[in-house]
UniProtKB/TrEMBL annotation:
Biological classification of the source: Bacteria, Bacillati, Actinomycetota, Actinomycetes, Kitasatosporales
SUPFAM superfamilies (alphabetical): NAD(P)-binding Rossmann-fold domains (SSF51735)
Protein's recorded name: UDP-glucose 4-epimerase
Pathway as given in its UniProt record: Carbohydrate metabolism; galactose metabolism
Family the UniProt entry places it in: Belongs to the NAD(P)-dependent epimerase/dehydratase family.
This protein's record includes keyword NAD: yes
NCBIfam families: galE (TIGR01179)
Gene that encodes the chain: galE_1
UniProt domain NAD-dependent epimerase/dehydratase: residue ranges: 3-250
Native source organism of the sequence: Streptomyces glaucus
Enzymatic reactions: UDP-alpha-D-glucose = UDP-alpha-D-galactose
Amino acid sequence: MTWLITGGAGYIGAHVARAMADAGERVVALDDLSAGVPARLPAGVPLVRGSSLDGELLRRVLAEHAVTGVVHLAARKQVAESVARPAYYYRENVGGLATLLDAVAEAGIERFVFSSSAAVYGDPGVELITEDTPCAPVNPYGETKLAGEWLVRAAGRAHGIATVCLRYFNVAGAAAPGLADTGVFNIVPMVFDRLTRDEAPRIFGDDYPTPDGTCVRDYIHVADLAEAHLAAARRLAAGGVAGDLTVNVGRGEGVSVRELITVIGEVTGDRRPPVVEGRRPGDAPRAVASAARAAAELGWTARRGVREMVESAWRGWLLHHGDRVRTP
Ligand SMILES: NC(=O)c1ccc[n+]([C@@H]2O[C@H](COP(=O)([O-])OP(=O)(O)OC[C@H]3O[C@@H](n4cnc5c(N)ncnc54)[C@H](O)[C@@H]3O)[C@@H](O)[C@H]2O)c1
């Protein structure tokens, strides 16, 4: 098989490209480089620069590379931006997916993996989120992921495409420093950024109904996440998915913001106490995956813990921002 990885020069996409190439899969990456970095891709993985909204380009790439499966990661992912620019997010995330699925169907491709998100659940108020927990996203970004899942399943049914939707929980870490997330939108780089600016980490709300009052999340190492994609691709290639499959990708273990900041203090050596500010609108008190279906259906379980995520992310941060980091 040959797999097209859209968003392949992105933080997660490059890890997926690397994991699949290392495992002997043939891959080609497509990325508009709006947030992607070509140097993240391993040698031997061709990169096509272009958008998932460009149907003509997609048809050409699928034909020229004889693509037989697609892993679709290309998307805009900033929640606050999605609130400010909803039409742009729907156009990029849902419109880009629709254009891609048309090209996939036309090319007769029968295997498709979609990057979804725990954001589809919103604030479900349950101890462990299963794939059957009702979806009620609380921002346009999460809505585009849920609408994307609906579209993926509908196109799968219409055109005989076997599909897997992977709902990622909170992604962190790096398989190598050069592959680290360069954006400052997720909590780990946000805390690194504060420390680098000689400022205390911020906690948004410590009066939630959780053990220490701060929000609880399920953190997943990006290298584990990449292996989940490989497992999904192989399951599809083996004909092991009849119709569609939707799977949480998490560790099934909750870590509070305060606990995470403590680990970051241990790893960076900067243990200054965090400052507590008001709650942010839309933050669920708890979002932890049930990881049972991923184990049963994909034979995949996360292997790396939170400390490994923070240590590897910190090595990446030092590579990209080391000149600004002072030794405590
Ligand atoms: N990072 C997370 O915590 C997280 C959690 C859940 C889901 N996701 C999803 O995972 C996917 C990858 O996220 P990431 O963290 O690697 O983000 P990223 O921004 O690093 O990667 C996205 C990549 O897609 C490219 N891209 C964006 N729009 C495109 C388009 N229309 N056509 C072609 N290329 C385009 C960007 O240049 C970038 O390289 C996204 O779909 C995101 O919604 C991420």
